[in-house]
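To: structure desk
From: M.T.
Subject: fold request, one chain
Message: Could you run this one when you get a chance? Sequence is below, nothing fancy, just the single chain.
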Amino acid sequence: MATGAGIAGGGDHDALRREVATLIERLDRRPLPRHLDERFARLVEAQKQLHDAGLAVVAWPERFGGRGFGPAEAAVVAGALGRAGTPETINFVALEVVAPALLRYATEEQLARWLPPMGPAEEVWCQLFSEPDAGSDLTSLRTRAVRDGDDWLVTGSKVWCTWGQFAHRGLLLARTGSVESRHKGISAFVVDMHAPGIDVRPLTTMTGISEFAEVHFEQARVPGSDLVGDVDGGWLVALEMLSAERGPYAVRRASVLQGALVALHAEIQARSEASPNAALGTTSGLRRRIVDATIAMELLERRISQVVRQLEQGLAIGAEAAVTKMLLTRAEQHVFAACQEALGLPGVAWVGEEHPWVEAFLYSRAASIYGGTEQIQRNTIGERLLGLPREPQSS
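Reply: Done. Structure tokens follow.
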């Protein structure tokens, strides 16, 4: 099992690791509350502590609250936090996905408005991409933005918006060209989630948590000053966000999975020492699960190391992002399947609140759908990396 220095390991960042270790000692490490409002408040407080310690956005420019570090330092922080089992930042959509695109395509005035409140989670963001009838095929989205003087009026629906009911702002993709224009007729906007004409409806998943929401727009007014990039240029913004989702964010998520696998081994070891004759941890089914999870994590860590090197060199992740997504999905599902099986009966039937590993297992089932389905990733790898013929379009 890969339990050494881990992702972005090495001895060049010892001082930074000590900073993170000091912060981790101060964080609230109790399991997250089941009540959604309490969970959200705990996560906001954790991110504020991270930001106050100067560790929330280390790779951002200093003028926006960062420290001007590079991708390697950001990976060191993400890796240490993930392996320690700390909660993921509540504003990860803003920090890891939206901000990289804004830093490339937004104006300096827009950046000054939007970035500083992200770090301490004073303003939480959501991503408004997927639609009920579009899913992973963003080129078929139908939410439309129509000019009205200097502003835009938006009508349509979005779905699977993480923390949408708590979000202050969202990065929206809307069609400003014809349906036939596909990716060439899409624009990106930042929307105020509390503006008139926006209706947010929480969605409860099988984890029992309403982490997602669907969002409906009915002639919602968006100021022209909140257009990101050029009119009909939203596809470039979307590609930058998807690249970030499989770049910096993937580093953090991989570290979370690595931490879960280490915790699983520690739990089994502790139980075996307490009851040497116990069968727990020695069944062939569980052993297979752990072997599968360990192999999946080893492959993912090798890929993440490549991602970090690419980011350090300023190279675009490109179509290889699909490989990262597939490896991340497989690792997540294998790791939490092993965790869930190790629980035994409490993993499938429990009294009161379930073990956190149960929630993680249930959540992992959707990993092959959210953020781009497995089929989309396979098509991207086949067509853009392997040069295979494009899949025929169904009539």
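Reply (cont.): Residues 1-11 have pLDDT under 50 and may be disordered. Let me know if you need anything else for the meeting.
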